[in-house]
Each structure stands twice: as C-alpha cells, then as structure tokens.
C-alpha cells in the first residue's frame, strides 16, 4: 500500500506497483497538431521536410548539406512507382560529395536506402546533442 | 557633406564678424547721415562732400574685409580638404598594415598549412579575412554551434562566421566534468575522446575540423558553410552600423548577429584576496584547458578541495573521488548548504545524495562558510567561519558562473539585474538583428516567466531557436530544455523546468531494482548521452542490449521516482529520479501548466515501476 510522509513543505509518497496499476485519471490538454510553435518531427504539418529536425543530425547543414537536401527532397516528392527512381543523379552527387569528407561521412555507411514517408527514420540515426554529421552506428 | 559643414562652421564666425562689421558700418553710416542734417542743417553745401569721402572709406574698408574673409575661407577649406585626404590615406594604410598581421595569425591557426607562402614572400596574393558575414555568431560554444547548424539547415548556402576567443573549435562541456574522468585511456587529455557507458566512443568536439570552412574562403565557397575564427575576441559592437570590432582592430559587418558568449566562472573574494600563492593553486573550471590542468594536478598532489555544492562541484567531487582510491588522493568538498545540490533537490533527497557522494570517496563538509584562505607551510589553509580548518594542496572553486555581458555597453544592450545576462524577449531577440542564446541570455519563457538557464540542453535548444529566428521564424521559447546529472553510475536524474528547492515539492517513489541505473538506461536505449535518447524516439527504435546486473543499494528509500515542483499549485518543474526515457511526458505536463488535484495520478503517467 502506498504511504505518505510530510517533511516541512515537501511531501513524499511511496507507491507499490499495484497502487499504480489503475490507469491515471489525470487530465492532459489535447495537443494542437497545427501549433506553429511546436517542434515537429521530420515532416511538417504542411508536408514539407523539416530540415532542422534533430533527427537528421547535421546532414542538412554540413558541407554536403546542399546535395543532401536536393537528394532527399527529390525522393520525398517523387511520384514514381519505385520512389526515388528519378533521383539517382541527386543521390550520386550526394555520395560524391560525401566521399570528399571521409571524416564526416565514414565510408562503412554506404548509400542507405532513404527513409519511407511513413516511417520518419532518416538515414542518420542520431541525436539531439549534435554529434558528428556521420550517421552514428547503432 | 562634411566638408561643406566643416567649412561653413569655420566660415560662420567669420561671416558673423564680417556681417557685424557691415552692420556696424551701415549703422554708423546711417547714424551719421541722420545726425548730419541736425548738426549741419545750416551748412548744407559742405555736408555731401564730407559724407562722400567718409562713405568711400567705409565702402573700401567693408570691401577689403569681405575680400579678406573670402580669401581666408577659401584657404581654410582647401587646407581642410588636404588634411581630410591625409587622414583617409592614413587609415587605409593602417588597415593594410593590420591585414598582413592577421594573415600571419590565421596561417598559424590553420591546421594543415606548413609552408604558407604568405609568411615567406614579400608581396603575395594575400588572402583576405571576411569583412562581412551574413550571419555572425559571437562565441564558439554549444549555443553558437546549435545556431550555426539551424541556420544552415534553414537557409540554403548560408555563410556563417563564428568568432571565439578560445583556441578550440566548438565542443560540448558536460563530458569535461563527467565522462572524460572515467576514461581508461591514458591519452584522454590529448584525444578528448570518451567512451560512453554503452561503449560508443566520440569526441567532445561537435565536428572534426574538416566540417568547417576556412574563414578566408567563406565568401567564395559555393554552397556556403560554417567558418570559425579562433583566438579572436570581439571588443566592440556598433549596432547602428551593424558591425563589430575585434581585439586586433579589424571590423566585420553583419546582417544578423548572435551573441552566445556564455560566461566565466565566478571566483571567491577570499581567494582573490589571498595572494598569488593561493590563486595559482586554484582552478576555476570551465574549459578544455582547465580539464587538462586539473587532470594533471590530480595525479601530482595529495589533496584537492572543491568549494561549491552544485552540479559542477558535485560532479567533479565524484569524478575525483573515484580516482582517489587509485592514486592516493584526498578529495574534500565543502559548501554552505546542508547537502549536495541543496539548492535543487528537496532536503531529504539532498541528504541522500550527500551520502552517495561520500560513498564515492569524498569527504563532504556541509554548512561550511569560508572565512579566509592562506598559504602556510606549503599547504593551502582554508579557515571556516565555524572554526574548522582544512589544509589542502589545491582548490577547485565551483561557485557559479558570471554571464559575459562585455558587449552590453558598446552595443547599447540591456542587462538583467535579477538574473544577469543580456535581457532578451521571448524570441531571444535583444535588438534589431541581434539575438542572444545560451548561458548569457536572460529570456522570457512564456510558460515559466523570465529566467536564465545555464544547462547544456538549454544552450542547444536556445541556440537552435535563435538560429531559426535569425532565418525568419519568429518563434518564442517553447520547447522546454532539460538537464541531467549523474553522480556515479548508480544514481542519475533528469530534470526539466524550474527545479528550485525552495518550492514545495511532491515526490512519488518506488523501490529501485538492478535495472534502474543510468548505466542500464543508456545500454537499453543504445545511446551515449541520455538526452539523446528522447529525440531518438523520433528517429526509430533501438534494439535493447543486455544490461549487466548491478546489485541494488540496500536501504534505498529513494530508489526511483518522480518529484514535482509546484508554484501556486501548478507543476513548474519535474525531476525524474533514476527513471529514464520519459522526458516527453514531463515536458507535456509542464507545457499544459494545469493545476492537478492529485499528483499521484499524474505520477502514474510515468509508469515508474516499469523500465
């Protein structure tokens, strides 16, 4: 059973697993999906790509950022049957650029298949604490 | 324009003089003419001739005066013109003299540039440092780098120039007082790489040097980039002219400017007054150099005392405490509060934390107020107000940060009197085209009020926001930053919002199991720095790895739980105590800003009994 203790202005509650089994009746305010201030994931509400998403790491901001943006945008808006089939040139350009900076884009990370729209998992799997642009190994 | 004005100014007194002369003459002439009829009314015949002779005299005089004035004016203006030209050519030659110096400094700081021709040949094609940067970021720390990345993401081909007075490229600070100390690598002070709990290794530098563009190339490189000028301090800001002046006299104009100058560690007056023997045995810890020197010292001295019981002091105490067993080092920590993190954690948790720190091998002296410090018989002697005396070899002062507001005066920027730092609005803007982010920014948080936050994640969040606003976003501070602290591998917490121990708190705890430690949390989520893991949720799932069993600490009343900080019955701060990967829920609760009747129900949302 849970029990409660008060130390001055601080209240301490100890709870067992059973105490917390019943679902919470705390009310949370519904999120507004169109909130302009809210940080969005990879895809913005209007369908555009959020280049500033922490999930992209520094891919869009590094020396090959321009090539990456072109390739990924082309893929994102591609209406081909095999998505991105018309973007081979862009991806090649991106890869050429990345080969010039092996420190930033380690070569073991070969041209990964770009993410699909439904799963917002991008090529690089990192972070928000700004580690290297190189997609980090999981 | 100026010539005319200057010339007119010089002419003015002359004009006045000559005009008064004219007026006086005219007056006299008139008066005399008037009077003459009265005096000489009977001698009409002689009057005109006498007046005529005098008149011509006056005319000649006035004419001569005017002519002389004109000649003088002409010569003055000509002289002025000459002097102006000389001045301009002198200034031009001055800047030309400065540039070769800058090139020499620049070539020294360039990493792989052995035979720079500019240093050898007398008149080569001298690369010119940028005189204009569309985006100028003052300060080369976390906030600045986050802003640079944000700008580059949003403005294609943006040219970003970072100016820092440190010699290092942008790096992250938390490992300097945590992970770097736990490294097994003896060369860690050189490589500055650390292995995280889960084995993943990385450098404290955000990016290797190849990421950055040479400042000299910045204006020319096709797709733009981020350039860093190290070892340069901005000393003056001209807001009207949209330019800054560096310590070497050169000026750089900007379109948008970010001030992210952070701060410098505070020192204690008793130490400053104690003389050179004490001050040279005192470390104010903040930068890479401080880490390197303290690491060296920790291997050579017998005793180190840390003054300060906050985040930095406690983390360093734990880090040094763990080393103490290996190298025979005595580690002491002293502070005025009753327990570690006394200003952050409620008293019962602060006491618990102090016990934890003691178990890491640190002698903790609580309620210790330093009265004076002396150097006696080869030891630094610290006398406390209650009479206790501590003898040690080296002091680390971790007593707070003084935000750097050097540019406030020249830039006409407001400084906040309550929190320190530059006062900015909710969108981090100080004045037109000037934003401030990071430790130096006292900003308006729409949810929690005006504050200034000195944490790593806040530097990232505010830097990113400033970068967005510099590229036209106009977003207020909305995404709450979080912070974390690990006191060894067994206790760690993440926190968000206003976490002030003077506020009433409600803590909901469960018993900890072996799986609830920071080490296990990072192993499971496969991330290094814990705050990464919450944004990992967007990036995709990571496969959990096996966590090595750690025996639970006995008598551990506060194994894991959630602590709510209340202000007027609204939750303004939350600590997740040994409970990880739940920051999004905490963030949501603070964002809602609701008054909850039963916080136990709110605590249920965190599922503290699960992993």
From TrEMBL, chain A:
<feature type="compositionally biased region" description="Low complexity">
    <location>
        <begin position="113"/>
        <end position="127"/>
    </location>
</feature>
<feature type="region of interest" description="Disordered">
    <location>
        <begin position="100"/>
        <end position="138"/>
    </location>
</feature>
<dbReference type="GO" id="GO:0015035">
    <property type="term" value="F:protein-disulfide reductase activity"/>
</dbReference>
<keyword id="KW-1015">Disulfide bond</keyword>
<keyword id="KW-0560">Oxidoreductase</keyword>
<keyword id="KW-0813">Transport</keyword>
<keyword id="KW-0811">Translocation</keyword>
<dbReference type="GO" id="GO:0045041">
    <property type="term" value="P:protein import into mitochondrial intermembrane space"/>
</dbReference>
<keyword id="KW-0653">Protein transport</keyword>
<keyword id="KW-0676">Redox-active center</keyword>
<dbReference type="GO" id="GO:0005758">
    <property type="term" value="C:mitochondrial intermembrane space"/>
</dbReference>
<protein>
    <recommendedName>
        <fullName>Mitochondrial intermembrane space import and assembly protein 40</fullName>
    </recommendedName>
</protein>
<dbReference type="InterPro" id="IPR039289">
    <property type="entry name" value="CHCHD4"/>
</dbReference>
<keyword id="KW-0496">Mitochondrion</keyword>
<dbReference type="GO" id="GO:0033108">
    <property type="term" value="P:mitochondrial respiratory chain complex assembly"/>
</dbReference>
From TrEMBL, chain B:
<keyword id="KW-1133">Transmembrane helix</keyword>
<keyword id="KW-0472">Membrane</keyword>
<dbReference type="InterPro" id="IPR023753">
    <property type="entry name" value="FAD/NAD-binding_dom"/>
</dbReference>
<feature type="region of interest" description="Disordered">
    <location>
        <begin position="93"/>
        <end position="122"/>
    </location>
</feature>
<feature type="transmembrane region" description="Helical">
    <location>
        <begin position="56"/>
        <end position="74"/>
    </location>
</feature>
<dbReference type="GO" id="GO:0033108">
    <property type="term" value="P:mitochondrial respiratory chain complex assembly"/>
</dbReference>
<dbReference type="GO" id="GO:0043068">
    <property type="term" value="P:positive regulation of programmed cell death"/>
</dbReference>
<keyword id="KW-0285">Flavoprotein</keyword>
<keyword id="KW-0520">NAD</keyword>
<dbReference type="GO" id="GO:0005634">
    <property type="term" value="C:nucleus"/>
</dbReference>
<dbReference type="Pfam" id="PF14721">
    <property type="entry name" value="AIF_C"/>
</dbReference>
<dbReference type="GO" id="GO:0003677">
    <property type="term" value="F:DNA binding"/>
</dbReference>
<keyword id="KW-0809">Transit peptide</keyword>
<keyword id="KW-0274">FAD</keyword>
<keyword id="KW-0560">Oxidoreductase</keyword>
<comment type="similarity">
    <text>Belongs to the FAD-dependent oxidoreductase family.</text>
</comment>
<keyword id="KW-0963">Cytoplasm</keyword>
<keyword id="KW-0496">Mitochondrion</keyword>
<feature type="domain" description="FAD/NAD(P)-binding">
    <location>
        <begin position="136"/>
        <end position="462"/>
    </location>
</feature>
<protein>
    <recommendedName>
        <fullName>Apoptosis-inducing factor 1, mitochondrial</fullName>
    </recommendedName>
</protein>
<dbReference type="GO" id="GO:0046983">
    <property type="term" value="F:protein dimerization activity"/>
</dbReference>
<comment type="subunit">
    <text>Monomer (oxidized form). Homodimer (reduced form). Upon reduction with NADH, undergoes dimerization and forms tight, long-lived FADH2-NAD charge transfer complexes (CTC) resistant to oxidation. Also dimerizes with isoform 3 preventing its release from mitochondria. Interacts with XIAP/BIRC4. Interacts (via N-terminus) with EIF3G (via C-terminus). Interacts with PRELID1. Interacts with CHCHD4; the interaction increases in presence of NADH.</text>
</comment>
């Amino acid at each position: 059973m849970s029990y409660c203790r008060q130390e001055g202005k601080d209240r301490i509650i100890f709870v067992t697993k059973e105490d917390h089994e019943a679902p919470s009746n705390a009310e949370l305010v519904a999120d507004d999906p169109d909130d302009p201030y809210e940080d969005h994931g990879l895809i913005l509400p209007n369908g555009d790509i959020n280049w500033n998403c922490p999930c992209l790491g520094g891919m869009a901001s590094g020396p090959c950022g321009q090539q990456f943006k072109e390739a990924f945008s082309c893929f994102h808006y591609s209406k081909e049957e095999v998505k991105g089939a018309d973007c081979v040139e862009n991806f090649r350009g991106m890869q050429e650029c990345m080969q010039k900076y092996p420190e930033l884009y380690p070569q073991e990370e070969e041209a990964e298949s770009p993410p699909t729209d439904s799963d917002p998992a991008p090529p690089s799997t990192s972070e928000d604490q700004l580690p290297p642009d190189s997609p980090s190994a999981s | 324009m100026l010539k005319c004005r200057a010339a007119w100014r010089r002419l003015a007194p002359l004009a006045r003089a000559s005009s008064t002369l004219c007026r006086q003459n005219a007056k006299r002439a008139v008066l005399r003419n008037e009077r003459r009829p009265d005096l000489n009314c009977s001698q009409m015949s002689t009057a005109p001739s006498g007046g005529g002779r005098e008149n011509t005299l006056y005319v000649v005089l006035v004419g001569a005066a005017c002519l002389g004035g004109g000649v003088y004016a002409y010569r003055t203006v000509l002289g002025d013109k000459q002097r102006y030209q000389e001045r301009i050519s002198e200034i031009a030659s001055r800047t030309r003299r400065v540039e070769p110096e800058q090139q020499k400094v620049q070539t020294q700081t360039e990493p792989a540039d052995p035979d720079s021709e500019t240093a050898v040949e007398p008149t080569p094609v001298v690369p010119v440092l940028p005189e204009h940067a569309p985006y100028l970021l003052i300060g080369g720390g976390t906030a600045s780098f986050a802003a640079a990345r944000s700008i580059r993401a949003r403005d294609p081909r943006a040219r970003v120039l970072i100016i820092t007075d440190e010699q290092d490229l942008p790096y992250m600070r938390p490992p300097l007082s945590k992970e770097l100390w736990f490294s097994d690598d003896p060369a860690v002070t050189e490589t500055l790489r650390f292995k995280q709990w889960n084995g993943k290794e990385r450098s404290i530098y955000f990016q290797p040097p190849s990421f950055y563009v040479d400042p000299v190339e910045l204006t020319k490189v096709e797709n733009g980039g981020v350039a860093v000028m190290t070892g340069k301090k901005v000393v003056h800001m001209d807001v009207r002219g949209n330019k800054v002046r560096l310590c070497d006299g050169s000026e750089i104009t900007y379109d948008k400017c970010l001030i992210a100058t952070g701060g410098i560690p505070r020192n204690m007056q008793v130490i400053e007054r104690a003389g050179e023997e004490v001050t040279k045995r005192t470390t104010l810890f903040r930068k890479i150099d401080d880490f390197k020197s303290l690491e060296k010292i920790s291997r050579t001295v017998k005793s180190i005392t840390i003054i300060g019981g906050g985040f930095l002091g406690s983390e360093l105490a734990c880090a040094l405490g763990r080393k103490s067993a290996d190298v025979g080092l005595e580690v002491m920590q002293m502070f005025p509060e009753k327990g570690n993190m006394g200003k952050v954690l409620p008293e019962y948790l602060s006491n618990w934390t102090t016990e934890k720190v003691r178990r890491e091998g640190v002698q903790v002296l609580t309620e210790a107020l330093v009265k004076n410090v002396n150097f006696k018989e080869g030891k630094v002697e610290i006398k406390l107000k209650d009479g206790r005396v501590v003898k040690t070899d080296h002091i680390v002062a971790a007593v707070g940060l003084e935000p750097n507001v050097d540019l406030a005066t020249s830039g006409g920027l407001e400084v906040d009197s309550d929190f320190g730092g530059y006062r900015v609005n909710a969108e981090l803007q100080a004045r037109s085209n000037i934003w401030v982010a990071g430790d130096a920014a006292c900003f308006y948080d729409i949810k929690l009020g005006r504050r200034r936050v000195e944490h790593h994640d806040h530097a990232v969040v505010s830097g990113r926001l400033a970068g967005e606003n510099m590229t036209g976003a106009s977003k207020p501070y909305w995404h709450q930053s979080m912070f974390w602290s690990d006191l060894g591998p067994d206790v760690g917490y993440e926190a968000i919002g206003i976490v002030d121990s003077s506020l009433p708190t409600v803590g909901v705890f469960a018993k900890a199991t072996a799986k609830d430690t920071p080490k296990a949390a990072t192993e499971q989520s496969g991330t290094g720095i814990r705050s990464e893991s919450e944004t990992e949720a967007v990036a995709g799932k990571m496969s959990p790895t096996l966590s090595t069993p750690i025996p639970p600490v006995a008598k551990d009343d506060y194994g894991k739980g959630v602590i709510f900080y209340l202000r007027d019955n609204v939750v303004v701060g939350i600590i997740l105590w040994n409970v990880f990967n739940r920051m999004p829920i905490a963030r949501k609760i603070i964002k809602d800003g609701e008054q909850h009747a039963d916080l136990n129900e709110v605590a249920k949302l965190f599922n503290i009994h699960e992993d």
